[in-house]
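Incident log, structure service

09:12 report received: a user says their structure output differs between two submissions of the same chain.
09:20 pulled the input from the user's history:
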Amino acid sequence: MPHYRSLARRLAGLSAVLGLAVAGCAGDPESASSEHSGGRTGASGQVTVFAAASLTEAFTEIGKAFEQANPDADLRFNFAGSATLSQQLTRGAPADVFASANTAQMQQAVGAGVTAGEPTVFVTNTLQIVVPAGNPANVTGLADFGKKDLALAVCAAQVPCGAVSQTLFETAGITPAPDTLEQSVKAVLTKVRLGEADAGLVYRTDVASAEGPVEGIDFPGAEKETNEYPIAALEDAPNAAGAHAFIDYVRSDEGKAALEEFGFGTDVS
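09:34 re-ran on a clean worker, output below:
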């Protein structure tokens, strides 16, 4: 059975600086499998995956399936905002795989020379308004994010969800009046779920997998600003074979099916 471990000891120094949020899941690959077929890869040893917070639920499920198919593997996840992860990697944090919620943060990692080969886009995602169940503030659309009488939560501009939010506001001619700027989409969702915000902007996948009384509201134009999620093996990966095996599994039919269940788009070139 898969089990959970922590990377806190290995990344304690970086955690103190960057506020690292770590979760682990047993399972790891050694040799790459076919891109279009999942299952056993003969993977073994530890593989450390740094993944965007919005991938938490989907990658956790994929990780369990991967581990069950590869009992000699030891897969460990570090879920956080993509900007935080990119900073950790460029500062020398040990990892095998990086999955970002946008191409900008991945390109920072590429520019710093920490990736091996070209990153591959494997899923897409779009934003949705999230409100407490019942929508007590009667939020109806993106224009409400310009109202100062509402408690509003959005991601900070340097975070992928924040960059997309900013573009959507500019396109719609809206000057947002957020009460809080968060470092991850999960933090925005938590503010709304706890009733500390009347509305927030998060990925539709986060609304779909939310644990708690929230609901999503679609708005025009969201589909025009799609986030592309790239994934890449890392240059100094302690387990390079395992890194490629995990990436292949994510891109396999089994991996795509799991991602689609959580609302991600997998129709990528």
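09:41 both user submissions now match this output. Likely a transient worker issue. Closing.
09:42 reviewer note: The mean pLDDT is 87. Strands lie at 45-52, 73-80, 97-99, 115-125, 127-132, 152-155, 180-182, 199-203, 214-217, 227-234.
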